[in-house]
Design a protein that fits this description.
About 45% of the residues lie in helices and about 20% in strands. With about 210 residues, it is an alpha/beta fold. A 5-stranded parallel β-sheet has the order 2-7-1-8-9, with helices on both faces. Strands 4-3-6-5 form a 4-stranded mixed β-sheet. The chain is globular. The chain binds guanosine-5'-monophosphate. Guanosine-5'-monophosphate (5GP) binds near residues 38, 73 and 82.
């Protein structure tokens, strides 16, 4: 039996750093890479679609997913919950594809604890001032929420020791290329162990 499947790539970094732009670029450029759509309790922003950007759910629905052990990881972020559905990730990995999770730091650390072979990539802004400027320019959050996101960013940037790759987002296209190179260079090398995946699936079915 095959001992490894695809790679699980955990892509994180503070809110506003530009993870979304890079994910969109990777989506265009890298084949055999599945993107996990997360579940969230946060309100839909203009232009976002259910099932595409996120699965938008109520707090009750989210809590039920936790209770039924349907999430690979989940975390609270500035007053809302965000989580990764297990099924999509497992199916994709088992079929030999890599899977990319674009998540915040607490969730990223949970994934690393469950899957030590997960590939950990941290995207950092050139500076905190630049991060604030990007959050304000995005114009999706209130001033109060921006302040909370910035405080969270400072805290998140204390956890870089969990990450194997640190990419500076001073230029989105170059940063996307760096992330792409990491993903491609690991193909055929380190892989998530199939037995760990199956163990987790059995646990959640029990
Ligand atoms: P936003 O509200 O800006 O879409 O996302 C806020 C933060 O939640 C971002 O840092 C984003 O990467 C993170 N996030 C999105 N989906 C997930 C998830 O499934 N799990 C975790 N732990 N964080 C997530």
């Amino acid at each position: 039996m095959e001992s490894g499947v695809g790679n699980l790539i955990v892509f994180t970094g503070p809110s506003g750093v530009g993870k979304g732009t890079i994910v969109r670029e990777l989506f265009k450029e890298v084949d055999k890479l599945g993107f996990s759509v997360s579940v969230t309790t946060r309100e839909k922003r203009a232009g976002e679609e259910d099932g595409k950007n996120y699965f938008f759910r109520t707090h009750e629905e989210f809590d039920e997913l936790i209770e039924k052990d349907r999430l690979l990881e989940w975390a609270e972020f500035v007053g809302n919950k965000y989580g990764t559905p297990k099924d999509f990730v497992f199916e994709k990995l088992k079929s030999g594809n890599d899977v990319l999770l674009e998540i915040e730091v607490q969730g990223a650390i949970q994934v690393k604890e469950k899957f030590p072979d997960a590939v950990m990539i941290f995207l950092v802004p050139p500076s905190l001032n630049e991060l604030e400027a990007r959050l304000r320019k995005r114009n999706t959050e209130t001033d109060e929420k921006i302040k909370l996101r910035l405080a969270k960013a400072k805290e998140e940037m204390q956890h870089t020791e969990f990450f194997e790759y640190i990419v500076i987002n001073d230029d989105a296209m170059r940063a996307a290329k760096d992330v792409k190179n990491v993903i491609l260079s690991l193909r055929g090398k380190k892989k998530i162990k199939l037995d760990l995946l199956e163990e987790m699936l059995t646990e959640s079915e029990a």
